[in-house]
Specification:
heterotrimer, A mainly alpha, B mainly alpha, C alpha+beta, A: MetI-like fold, B: mainly alpha, MetI-like fold, 76% helix, Peptide/Ni-bd (chain C), SBP_5_dom (chain C), ABC transporter substrate-binding protein (chain C), TAT_signal (chain C), transport (chain B)
Chain lengths: 266, 324, 519
C-alpha cells in the first residue's frame, strides 16, 4: 500500500523528534557545561530564567543540566533493560513457534506462570538484594517485561514460519539460519523497533513509581524517574520542575508513536 | 460441536489450574530464597516495621527474634509453611500478628472494588473513543485518542492522580480526595487508573475496528446494502472484540499490581500496598499471601476473559488455538 | 430527619448522570449524616495492637490512658494515678489510682488490671525495660507499688509513655497478646481497620467531663501531598506531618489554618567514633563546620529558625543552653583544623599522613521524607569541603544494626529526645557507657556518664539539676559524638470549622477533648 503524504510526514516528524532527543542526551551535558551536582541553597527553586533555562530545583541545581545528564543515563539504562527483556523474549518466542508441540506448550506455560507472579514482587526483591543499585532495578524490570516479547514474537512468527515463503525456502534446502535471517527477522524488526522504546519509557516510569514508594533512590545521580519523585512535592509551587522530565518522556513516546504510524503495537 | 466445546473448556480450565500450581510453587520458592538471600537483619526489619524508627534497636530486634523463633533452621520454617499451606492456612503476619487470611481478605476486597470500577470506567472511556477514531481516521477523535495515548504513556500515575485530586476534589469539590470509608472515595483512584488503561484500549480498539471494517465480511455486508453504521455494529464490532479482550488479558496485570502508586497516593488499603510494606518489613507470610492473592486474581480475570473469547469466537474452539 | 448537604447532593447527581453502571460495582454512597465525625489524617499507620507498636495512636486519640501524664514542659501530671509518692531511698514508688476511673467495658480500673498491663509492658522495646524494676504489684483495690533495684528518677516519665498504656483485662488473650483495645479514656473505639483507619466515639464510662466532639475518625495516609489536599478540600479536619512544600501551598491558599509547635526532635548525624578518620575529634568538628545549617533550614525545611545551633531546641526549657557557642559553618577554621590533624587536601579530598583518602558512607532512611533530602544537601556541602561521602538510603533498622556490628560510619536520623516526657531517659539510653543504638557509637565520656547517672538517680535541687544538665550537654557539644543538623517543627493543617485546637509539644495527645465545632 502506498504511503500517503501525511503518513510520511508524520513518520519523518517522529524520526526527527527521536534524533533530537538522542542529540540532547548525547551532546547536551557537554554543551550545557554546568555540573548537575553543584548546589547553591540560596538559589533554591528559581523560576526558569536566563541563567537557568529550566529553573533550579530545591537544592539550587540547574534543572537543564540535570535533565541532560538524566536523559543520557535513564534512556540508556532503560533501553538496556528493554533489550535484556527482548533478547530472551524473542528467542523463546521464535523457538516456541518454530518447534511447536511440547516445547511450545512448555514455554507458554512458563510465560503464564511468570505473568501470574506479580512483576512488582520481582522488582522489589531485586531492589532489596542490592539496595540503591540501578542495575538491580533494571534486571528486575527486564524479568517482568520479557513475557510481552515472548507473546508478540510467538504470535508474529507463527504465520511466517508456516507460510508459503518459508516452506519454499525449506524445500529448496536452505538451512534454519537462512530462514531466520531472510524471513523471520525482517518481519519481526518493525515490531521490535516499536516495542523496544515503549518498554524503555515503561522502565523509566516504573523507576519513578518505585521511587514513589521509597525504593531505588540514589542521590545525587540525575535519573529521570527519580527526578520526577524529587520534583513531585513542588507540583503546585514550581510546576515547571515536574513538567520538565515528563515533557521529555512525552516527546520520546510521541516520536515513537509517529514513527510507528499505523503499525504500532499497544 | 458440543463435544469440541467441552474439550475446549476442559483445556482452558486445565491450563489455568496448572498456572495456579506453578504460581504456588514459584511464590513459595521465591519467598524461601528471599529469606536466605536478602541483605539486612530480618529481626531488625520486622522490629522497625512494628515499632517505628524511634524504637527499633538491638533489644527490640532480639525480642522479636525470640518471639518469632527466627533462629530456627530454614528448612524447618519451610516445611512448616508448606504444611500450613496444605491446610490452607497462610499463617500470621510477623508484624501485626494478625492472620494473613484475615488481612488479605480486607485488602483483596478493597483491591477488587478498585479493579472492577477501573475496568468499567476504562471501557466506558476507551472503547467509544477508539471506535470513533477508527471510523474517521485522521479526524478529531483520532487526534484526541493519539494525544491521550501519548501523554498518558509518559505521565507518572502519581502526577495524574494529584492533578485529578486538585481538579475534582479541591477545585470543584465533587469528590473526596482520599480513602476514608465514606462513600465516593473510589472514584478518584479508579479514574486515575482507568485513564491509563483507556488510552491503551482506545489505541487497540481503533486498529482492531479498522482491520475489521476492511475485512471481507464487512465489505460484503456493505455491498449487500447495509449502511456503514449497520455494518460497523453487526459485523465489525464483534470481530474487533477479540483483540481488545486479548489486550485486556495482558494489561489487567496493571490493575492488580500497577496500583501500588495509586493506592499509596489515595491511601487505598489494597493488596499492592500490603505487598510493598511486607517486602520492606521482610514479613514473609504477608508477602506470600499478597503475592498469592494477586496472582490468583490475575488468573481469575484471565479465566473470565478466556471464557468470553471462547464464547465470542468459534475459531478458538479448535484444539491447539487456545491462545494468541 | 437528615437532609443531604449540597455537597452530597452534587455527588449523587454526578453519580446518577451516566455512571449508573458503576454503581453496581461499588458500594453505594451513603447520605451524609448531620454531623460528620472529626477526621484526623496523619502518616502513622496502625501496625498492630501491641502497646509498644501502635499504642501511641490510641493514647493520642485519647482512647487509652497512662498512669501519668505530662505538662508541656515535661513535668509529671496526674492521669490514671491521682497521686504518688516515693520512699526516701528512691526504691519504692506508691501510686493511688483515680477512684472513678472505668474501662470502656464498664469494669473499674483496678490496681490488678494496671499491674497486669505494666508487667506486660516490660519487654523490649517497651520503655519500662529501661528502668531497673524489681516488681510491679497491687497492694490494694486502688493502690499500686513499684519496687526498683536502684533509684531511677525518670520512672514517672516512663509511666507516661504510650507503651505503658493501661488496658482492661478483657483486652488480653491468655498469652498476654492484645486482642482488642479496651481503654479508659474519654473515647472508645467503635471500628478498627488496621492499618489505615480507626473510628472512635465518646465513652459512656469516662469519669471526666464529656467532650464536645462526639465522633472521631483517624486515618493514615502515607503521602504528605495527599494529607494536605485532604485538608484543603475540607475532607480532613486535622492533617498532621505536612511537608514544607505543602505548607507553603496551604499558607498561600488560606483555606485552612496552620498550627505548629516545635517538638524535641533533632535531625542528627550519628557517627562511629572508632571509624578511621572519625576517631579524630578535629575531623568530627570539621564535618560539623562544613554544614550550612541555616541554608538547609531555609531552602529545604522553609523555616530558618530550625537550624540547630546545638542538640536541644530552645523550646525544650531546662535543656537548651543559650551560653553554648552555636554550631555553624566556617570553611577557614575547617581547613585549619584538618591541617593541624595532619590531613592534606588533594583534588579528590582529604588524605591522612599515609596518603589514604578519607571516604565515608552516610546511611539514612526514607520513612521521614526530609531525611534523604537533607542527606543530599550534606553530601554536596561535604564535597565542597573536601569530604568524599556517599549516601545510601535503606531501612531504619539498618542503622541500629550497623551500630551493633560496628560497620556504622555516618548515619542521618531524626532522634526524638522526648520519647518519654523527660529527656533524661532517652539521653541515658543514647550516651551511656556502651553508647546507644541511636546515640553514640564507640564513644563515651566519664563526664557525660557521671552527669547522666546523677540525673537518673534523682534527688537533685534545681541548681544541681541545671548544673548536671549543663555538664552533659557541654560535653556532647564539645566532643561531637553526634552532629546536630536541624530541629523539627510539627505542622498541622486545621479546618476553620474547628475551635480550641492546641498542639502537644510532646506529641502525646491530639487534645480532642478541648476541641469543638464552630457554631
Amino acid at each position: 500500500m502506498p504511503e500517503t503524504f501525511s503518513a510520511r510526514l508524520a513518520r519523518h516528524c517522529g524520526l526527527g523528534l527521536l534524533i533530537l532527543i538522542a542529540c540532547f542526551a548525547l551532546l547536551g551535558p557537554a554543551l550545557i557545561g554546568i555540573d548537575p551536582a553543584t548546589q547553591s541553597l540560596g538559589d533554591s527553586l528559581l523560576p526558569p530564567g536566563a541563567s537557568h533555562w529550566l529553573g533550579t530545583d530545591v537544592y539550587g541545581r540547574s534543572v537543564l543540566a540535570r535533565i541532560a545528564h538524566a536523559a543520557q543515563l535513564s534512556l540508556g539504562l532503560a533501553l538496556l533493560a528493554a533489550l535484556s527483556a527482548a533478547l530472551p523474549g524473542v528467542l523463546t518466542g521464535v523457538t516456541a513457534s518454530w518447534c511447536g508441540g511440547r516445547i511450545e506448550r512448555g514455554l507458554v506455560m512458563l510465560a503464564d506462570a511468570c505473568m501470574a507472579v506479580p512483576g512488582l514482587l520481582l522488582v522489589l526483591l531485586f531492589a532489596a538484594i542490592a539496595p540503591g543499585q540501578y542495575w538491580a532495578l533494571y534486571i528486575g524490570l527486564a524479568l517482568s517485561l520479557w513475557v510481552e516479547y515472548f507473546r508478540v514474537t510467538r504470535a508474529a512468527s507463527r504465520p511466517i514460519l508456516h507460510g508459503d515463503a518459508v516452506q519454499a525456502s525449506r524445500l529448496l534446502g536452505f538451512g534454519k539460519l537462512y530462514v531466520l535471517r531472510r524471513h523471520v527477522l525482517p518481519a519481526l524488526t518493525p515490531l521490535l523497533a516499536t516495542l523496544l522504546p515503549l518498554s524503555a519509557a515503561q522502565a523509566v516510569l516504573a523507576l519513578a513509581a518505585l521511587g514513589f514508594i521509597g525504593v531505588g533512590l540514589q542521590p545525587p545521580t540525575p535519573e529521570l524517574g527519580v527526578m520526577m519523585i524529587e520534583f513531585f512535592p513542588f507540583y503546585s509551587e514550581a510546576p515547571w520542575l515536574i513538567a520538565a522530565p515528563v515533557t521529555l518522556l512525552i516527546l520520546l513516546v510521541l516520536g515513537m508513536m509517529l514513527l510507528a504510524g499505523d503499525k504500532e503495537l499497544t | 460441536m458440543s463435544s469440541t466445546q467441552t474439550s475446549a473448556w476442559r483445556g482452558l480450565l486445565l491450563r489455568r489450574a496448572i498456572q495456579v500450581l506453578a504460581l504456588l510453587l514459584i511464590i513459595g520458592s521465591v519467598c524461601f530464597l528471599m529469606v536466605r538471600a536478602l541483605p539486612g537483619d530480618m529481626a531488625m526489619r520486622i522490629a522497625a516495621s512494628r515499632y517505628g524508627y524511634d524504637f527499633v534497636g538491638s533489644a527490640a530486634a532480639s525480642a522479636v527474634a525470640q518471639e518469632l523463633q527466627l533462629q530456627r533452621p530454614l528448612w524447618q520454617a519451610w516445611l512448616e509453611w508448606l504444611g500450613q499451606l496444605l491446610r490452607l492456612d497462610l499463617g500470621q503476619s510477623l508484624v501485626s500478628g494478625e492472620a494473613v487470611w484475615h488481612e488479605m481478605a480486607h485488602h483483596l476486597a478493597a483491591s477488587l472494588d478498585l479493579a472492577v470500577t477501573t475496568l468499567i470506567l476504562a471501557m466506558l472511556i476507551g472503547l467509544p473513543l477508539g471506535v470513533a477514531a477508527a471510523v474517521r481516521p485522521g479526524g478529531v477523535a483520532d487526534r484526541i485518542a493519539l494525544l491521550f495515548a501519548v501523554v498518558l504513556r509518559a505521565t507518572p500515575a502519581f502526577l495524574l492522580g494529584i492533578l485529578l485530586m486538585l481538579l475534582l476534589a479541591v477545585h470543584w469539590g465533587m469528590l473526596p480526595a482520599a480513602h476514608d470509608d465514606q462513600g465516593g472515595t473510589l472514584w478518584l483512584p479508579a479514574l486515575t487508573l482507568a485513564l491509563g488503561l483507556a488510552a491503551g484500549l482506545a489505541r487497540i480498539s481503533r486498529s482492531a475496528v479498522r482491520e475489521a471494517l476492511a475485512s471481507p465480511a464487512c465489505e460484503f455486508a456493505r455491498s449487500k446494502g447495509l449502511s456503514d453504521f449497520q455494518a460497523l455494529l453487526r459485523h465489525a464490532l464483534p470481530l474487533a472484540a477479540l483483540p481488545v479482550l486479548a489486550y485486556l488479558g495482558v494489561h489487567l496485570v496493571l490493575l492488580v499490581e500497577g496500583t501500588v502508586v495509586v493506592e499509596s497516593l489515595f491511601a487505598w488499603p489494597g493488596v499492592g500496598h500490603a505487598l510493598v510494606h511486607a517486602v520492606f518489613a521482610r514479613d514473609v507470610p504477608v508477602i506470600q499471601g499478597a503475592a498469592l492473592s494477586m496472582g490468583l486474581l490475575f488468573i481469575l480475570f484471565n479465566l473470565l476473559l478466556d471464557a468470553l473469547m471462547l464464547a465470542i469466537d468459534p475459531r478458538q474452539r479448535k484444539p491447539g488455538a487456545s491462545d494468541a | 430527619m437528615t437532609q443531604p448537604e449540597p455537597d452530597g447532593l452534587r455527588r449523587r447527581l454526578l453519580q446518577g448522570a451516566g455512571l449508573g453502571a458503576l454503581a453496581l460495582a461499588c458500594p453505594p454512597l451513603r447520605a451524609q449524616p448531620a454531623v460528620k465525625p472529626l477526621l484526623i489524617v496523619s502518616s502513622w499507620e496502625i501496625s498492630g495492637l501491641a502497646p509498644a507498636a501502635s499504642g501511641y495512636i490510641f493514647t493520642r486519640l485519647q482512647v487509652t490512658e497512662t498512669l501519668l501524664d505530662a505538662q508541656d514542659d515535661g513535668t509529671p501530671k496526674a492521669a490514671l494515678a491521682a497521686s504518688w509518692k516515693v520512699s526516701p531511698d528512691g526504691l519504692e514508688w506508691h501510686f493511688e489510682l483515680r477512684p472513678g476511673a472505668r474501662f470502656h467495658d464498664a469494669s473499674p480500673v483496678t490496681a490488678q488490671a494496671v499491674a497486669r498491663s505494666l508487667n506486660l509492658a516490660r519487654t523490649p522495646p517497651g520503655v519500662l525495660s529501661m528502668a531497673p524494676i524489681r516488681s510491679i504489684e497491687a497492694t490494694g483495690e486502688k493502690q499500686l507499688r513499684i519496687r526498683l533495684s536502684s533509684p531511677y528518677m525518670p520512672l514517672l516519665s516512663l509511666l507516661a509513655h504510650s507503651s505503658t498504656m493501661i488496658l482492661a483485662p478483657a483486652s488480653f488473650e491468655a498469652s498476654g497478646t492484645v486482642r482488642e483495645i479496651v481503654g479508659s479514656g474519654p473515647y472508645r473505639i467503635s471500628k478498627l481497620e488496621a492499618p489505615h483507619q480507626v473510628e472512635t466515639r465518646v465513652s459512656e464510662h469516662y469519669d471526666g467531663p464529656r467532650p464536645a466532639i462526639a465522633e472521631v475518625r483517624y486515618m493514615a495516609a502515607g503521602r504528605a501531598e495527599t494529607r494536605s489536599l485532604m485538608a484543603e478540600s475540607g475532607q480532613a479536619d486535622l492533617a498532621y506531618n505536612l511537608d514544607p512544600a505543602s505548607i507553603t501551598r496551604l499558607r498561600q491558599r488560606g483555606s485552612v489554618n496552620i498550627a505548629s509547635v516545635t517538638v524535641p526532635r533533632t535531625v542528627v548525624i550519628n557517627l562511629n567514633a572508632a571509624f578511621s578518620g572519625l576517631k579524630d575529634l578535629r575531623v568530627r568538628q570539621a564535618l560539623s563546620l562544613a554544614i550550612d545549617r541555616p541554608g538547609i533550614a531555609r531552602a529545604l525545611l522553609r523555616d530558618p529558625e530550625l537550624a540547630a545551633s546545638q542538640l536541644m531546641p530552645p523550646t525544650l526549657a531546662g535543656w537548651h543552653d543559650a551560653s553554648l557557642p552555636p554550631l555553624q559553618r566556617d570553611p577557614v577554621a575547617l581547613k585549619q583544623l584538618m591541617r593541624e590533624g595532619g590531613w592534606t587536601l588533594g583534588t579528590e579530598g582529604w588524605r591522612d599522613t599515609q596518603g589514604q583518602l578519607l571516604r565515608l558512607k552516610l546511611q539514612t532512611f526514607p520513612d521521614r521524607p526530609e531525611l534523604p533530602v537533607i542527606a543530599g544537601a550534606l553530601q554536596a556541602q561535604w564535597r565542597e569541603a573536601g569530604f568524599a561521602v556517599s549516601v545510601s538510603i535503606g531501612n531504619s533498622g539498618d542503622i541500629p544494626l550497623a551500630h551493633r556490628d560496628g560497620s556504622l560510619q555516618l548515619a542521618l536520623a531524626a532522634r526524638n529526645y522526648a520519647i518519654v516526657p523527660d529527656p533524661t531517659a532517652t539521653l541515658a539510653q543514647d550516651f551511656g557507657p556502651q553508647g546507644g543504638d541511636w546515640g553514640a557509637t564507640n564513644w563515651s565520656s566519664p563526664v557525660a556518664v557521671d552527669a547522666l547517672q546523677r540525673l537518673v538517680r534523682g534527688g537533685l535541687d534545681k541548681a544541681q539539676l541545671a548544673a548536671q544538665r549543663k555538664r552533659l550537654l557541654q560535653t556532647l557539644h564539645d566532643e561531637l559524638p553526634l552532629i546536630p543538623v536541624c530541629w523539627y517543627r510539627q505542622n498541622v493543617a486545621v479546618s476553620k470549622r474547628l475551635e480550641g485546637v492546641s498542639l502537644d509539644p510532646l506529641e502525646r495527645s491530639f487534645r480532642l477533648t478541648g476541641m469543638r465545632w464552630k457554631a
